[in-house]
Write a structure and sequence with these properties.
Strands 1-3-2-4 form a 4-stranded antiparallel beta sheet. With 238 residues, the protein is of the alpha+beta class. The protein has 8 helices and 4 strands. Helix 4 packs across helix 5 (146-159). The protein has a domain at 133-236: minor pseudopilin epsh fold (3-Layer(bab) Sandwich), CATH 3.55.40. Residues 61, 65, 116, 198, 200, 202-203 line the site of manganese (III) ion.
């Protein structure tokens, strides 16, 4: 995980279309194997986040990309009587306990499943605005103010070259901005992700093409600060 410092203001926009693990259009999807992990239902319609993310992107992203991570994770842990019973966050927090032969698959698909589940939960229609309460206080004391926080998060999201995520995490008893490659989850380095932005091109290409910065700037309109505050309170107590 790359922790972003205030001095890292050089933004680099990613190029090239990200590799994707999902079937091509029209190609039959394989029946997912039975397994402990399943695709969570969205709490809103595909078109509910249109102010920031178009319905077609949501449908493909959830139904194909996220489903592919769930399927891949179930395949990876199949036959491992320990892992099939363990909650995903515990698997990722203790990633070195995962057998080496399947570890990278669990990092990719387990991280993909966890990260996307968080992504859907921390967005909502008619959301956006600013955080309130203790989360707002923590953001202000850590990053000076909300606008400076947003600027630093934006820099992290632009600075992730290629595919990955930008994060607000809770680690070492404080808030931090970070970014990770691919589907690497902050839980693997002991940080608790509170808010994450998927900057793989599959997350924005249909509407924004190469304009990652416009996707980032539009995304604030659907951030569900209530859900982020809940995660913050749990992280502080945990
Ligand atoms: Mn994605």
């Amino acid at each position: 995980m790359t922790i972003v410092t205030r001095r890292q203001m050089l933004a680099t926009v990613a190029g090239g279309i990200a590799a994707s693990a999902v079937p091509a259009f029209g190609q039959a999807t394989a029946q997912p194997p039975a397994g402990p992990f399943s695709l969570p239902r969205l709490a809103y319609a595909f078109d509910a986040l249109e102010v920031a993310i178009d319905a077609r992107t949501m449908e493909i992203h959830h139904g194909r990309h996220h489903q592919a991570y769930v399927t891949g994770l179930n395949t990876a842990v199949m036959g491992n009587t320990e892992l099939v019973r363990r909650p995903l966050d515990q698997i990722l927090r203790n990633i070195n306990q995962v057998p080496e032969a399947i570890r990278q698959a669990v990092i990719n698909h387990g991280g993909g499943h966890y990260n996307h589940t968080l992504f859907w939960e921390t967005m909502a229609p008619n959301a956006g605005g600013k955080p309130t309460g203790m989360l707002a206080e923590a953001i202000n004391s850590t990053f000076t103010n909300f606008d400076t926080f947003k600027t630093q998060f934006r820099t992290a999201a632009l600075g992730r070259f290629g595919s990955g995520w930008a994060w607000l995490v809770y680690a070492n008893n404080r808030l931090q901005i970070a970014h990770t490659a691919n589907q690497d989850c902050p839980l693997m380095t002991g940080a608790v992700p509170l808010l994450g932005l998927d900057v793989w091109e599959h997350a924005y290409y249909l509407r924004y093409q190469n304009r990652r910065v416009d996707y980032i700037d539009g995304w604030w309109r659907v951030v569900n600060w209530t859900a982020v505050a809940t995660r913050f309170n749990q992280a502080r107590q945990g």
